[in-house]
């Protein structure tokens, strides 16, 4: 199925066009039901993100401050999904020990979970059978109808997505991700065990592993 996602023909969009297209899809009254998001890569580059800039400069307090300031918007986003009849579930694949990127990202995911979003975490050992040649693609499946294959450039920066209007493939992707999701653990459990003790203490500057 994952090879089919990579090979599927679709409309390739840059980041801005992808975000606009996905927003329009969510607002479509005909689009209801489950939305699945699969996150695989262990390292990204979030250029243009103030929290990422703070992270790269070693200012951990600023990272946490920025993420906390986003709480109201995240809560509004969750309410928007509910109002539109959509249920978003995210599956985060992790390799241990966590990369410095994951230490950073987990602080954002923590806020999302506290605001009501559903996120689970699965050790990469559970997906090796799918990765004989390539890592799993980053993807989002909407309502068993539309699939987005998320794209990144050579530096790991977000570069948009390929939209695939293939209900059969979208259903297959949703089914596979949901099966993996059932094997995964709640994000909070993962965070307390693998993340909380590994981040710099408040008030510290520097001390990050290599990004």
UniProtKB/TrEMBL annotation:
Report the residue ranges that make up the DUF6879 domain in this protein: 31-191
Please name the InterPro entries in this protein's record: DUF6879
Pfam families cross-referenced by the UniProt entry: DUF6879
**Can you name this protein?**
DUF6879 domain-containing protein
Q: What is the lineage of its organism?
A: Bacteria, Bacillati, Actinomycetota, Actinomycetes, Streptosporangiales
